[in-house]
């Protein structure tokens, strides 16, 4: 919540300080930065899943750094492309893209905490990262650094946040391992004592058969205790020993990336198209209206964070998916009603230049609420490593861009198009996900038996 509030504050103050003529550049580059954060979002989901399934943390971090290097190389290539397409400065485009590798590392550490069910430490990291990203950018804007200065300051903050998150994740893992080791020692001691007590009355002089049986019983008791502990607590689980010892490739991240890319593109493409079809003033007004979209989209983020580890466990996946979609729908209704009631206050915070969009804020919020439900449905596909369902979202993205470029020439037609396409896409994806969950199969394929290696 702290991270989201900080992000909304940045955009609100940027809209006021940069004005309607300059804010659209900043908002468009933030949209580009969000798209470039797709590998980071996929990284967190993949890492969390691998940790749930018992992957070794050294292998996880090795994969994390390989992905960060790939993202850095792609970002360098994209800088001149983004500058040319959006008609912005190269320095500003570099600031937006420069944060991408650090975001991958940061999200990897967040995934380690999420997969290990260390939600208190994860909340600390999320709040710290949001503050570290926004505070420097606000200082840069206040000092007149413009969009480029704010983006570079934010990128520096993300680098610092990634370093701190790594330290928090490592210290949390060490503390958890120490506690688990203490529990194992206690269980082992109890098992040995039980074996001795059970064997004492039944000792025979002929061959010690009763001793052997009682020792086996004590050992079995200890093993059951250890298995129960490993099955519910840390990152090592009995069935996943082979998985924990193997290297983790980049391919699972790439599969998750295309799912996250489809979702983020569908939620951000309107901010890029708006620079093409509207003038600077209306583009800035539309961009500020999308703050309501982002609030409704990111407000229920904790729902997916908490339920995702359960989605990755076959025994709990179907129930977790139903719970997630239900809660997200309810929160979305509340967000839309809240936006409609708060709309008259928008010009007081953003300025009278933005008064023309206040009557449409509920539609922007509706757009975000629908996308939040879509995100919950797609998370289930990543959790079970079945990502073919993302094709529906890619088709929706292509349709939205085509309709906007061909027909949308006002703020109203743009947001109506975005809401309509998002609604149809979400209904299709949600129906498929719920039906496959009810049948006990993963979205996009027949059921498979989980083994020690990833598919």
Features:
single chain; 455 residues; mainly alpha; 17 helices; 81% helix; globular; disordered C terminus
Task: Write the topology of this structure.
Elements: H1 2-36, H2 38-52, H3 57-86, H4 90-98, H5 100-115, H6 119-142, H7 146-199, H8 209-232, H9 241-245, H10 251-277, H11 280-298, H12 301-311, H13 317-342, H14 346-350, H15 361-383, H16 390-407, H17 411-438
Helix pairs in contact: 1-3, 1-4, 1-6, 1-7, 1-10, 1-11, 2-3, 2-5, 2-10, 3-4, 3-5, 4-7, 5-6, 5-7, 6-7, 7-8, 10-11, 10-15, 10-16, 11-13, 11-15, 12-13, 12-15, 13-15, 13-17, 15-17, 16-17
Describe this structure in words.
This protein has helices at residues 2-36, 38-52, 57-86, 90-98, 100-115, 119-142, 146-199, 209-232, 241-245, 251-277, 280-298, 301-311, 317-342, 346-350, 361-383, 390-407, 411-438. The chain is mainly α and 455 residues long. Helix 1 (2-36) crosses helix 7 and helix 2 packs antiparallel against helix 3. It starts with a helix and ends in a 17-residue tail after the last helix.
């Amino acid at each position: 919540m702290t991270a989201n509030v900080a992000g909304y504050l940045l955009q609100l103050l940027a809209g006021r300080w940069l004005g309607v003529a300059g804010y659209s550049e900043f908002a468009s580059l933030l949209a580009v930065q969000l798209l470039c954060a797709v590998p980071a979002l996929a990284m967190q989901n993949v890492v969390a899943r691998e940790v749930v399934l018992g992957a070794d943390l050294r292998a996880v971090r090795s994969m994390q750094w390989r992905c960060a290097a790939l993202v850095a190389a792609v970002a360098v290539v994209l800088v001149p492309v983004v500058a040319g397409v959006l008609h912005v400065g190269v320095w500003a485009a570099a600031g937006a893209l420069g944060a991408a590798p650090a975001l991958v590392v940061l999200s990897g550490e967040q995934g380690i905490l999420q997969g290990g069910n260390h939600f208190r430490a994860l909340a600390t990291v999320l709040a710290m990262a949001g503050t570290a990203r926004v505070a420097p950018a606000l200082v840069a804007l206040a000092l007149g650094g413009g969009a480029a200065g704010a983006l570079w300051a934010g990128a520096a903050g993300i680098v610092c946040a990634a370093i701190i998150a790594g330290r928090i994740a490592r210290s949390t893992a060490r503390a958890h391992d120490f506690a688990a080791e203490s529990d194992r020692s206690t269980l082992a001691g109890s098992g040995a004592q039980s074996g001795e007590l059970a064997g004492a009355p039944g000792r025979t002089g002929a061959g010690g058969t009763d001793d052997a049986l009682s020792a086996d019983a004590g050992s079995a008791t200890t093993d059951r205790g250890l298995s129960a502990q490993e099955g519910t607590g840390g990152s090592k689980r009995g069935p996943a020993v082979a998985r924990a010892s193997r290297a983790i490739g980049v391919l699972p991240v790439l599969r998750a990336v295309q799912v996250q890319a489809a979702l983020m593109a569908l939620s951000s493409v309107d901010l890029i198209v708006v620079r093409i079809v509207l003038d600077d003033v209306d583009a800035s007004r539309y961009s500020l209206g999308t703050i309501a979209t982002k609030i409704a989209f990111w407000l229920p983020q904790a729902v997916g964070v908490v339920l995702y580890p359960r989605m990755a466990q076959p025994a709990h996946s179907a129930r977790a998916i139903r719970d997630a979609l239900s809660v997200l729908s309810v929160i979305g209704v509340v967000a839309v009603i809240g936006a409609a009631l708060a709309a008259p206050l928008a010009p007081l915070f953003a300025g009278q230049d933005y008064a023309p969009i206040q009557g449409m804020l509920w539609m922007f919020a509706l757009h975000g609420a629908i996308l939040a439900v879509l995100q919950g449905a797609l998370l289930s596909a990543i959790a079970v490593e079945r990502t073919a369902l993302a094709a529906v979202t890619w088709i929706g993205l292509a349709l939205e861009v085509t309709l906007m470029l061909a027909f949308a020439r006002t703020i109203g037609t743009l947001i109506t198009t975005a809401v309509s396409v998002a609604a149809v896409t979400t209904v299709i994806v949600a129906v498929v996900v719920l039906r496959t969950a009810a049948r006990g199969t993963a979205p996009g394929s027949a059921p498979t038996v989980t083994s020690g290696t990833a598919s």
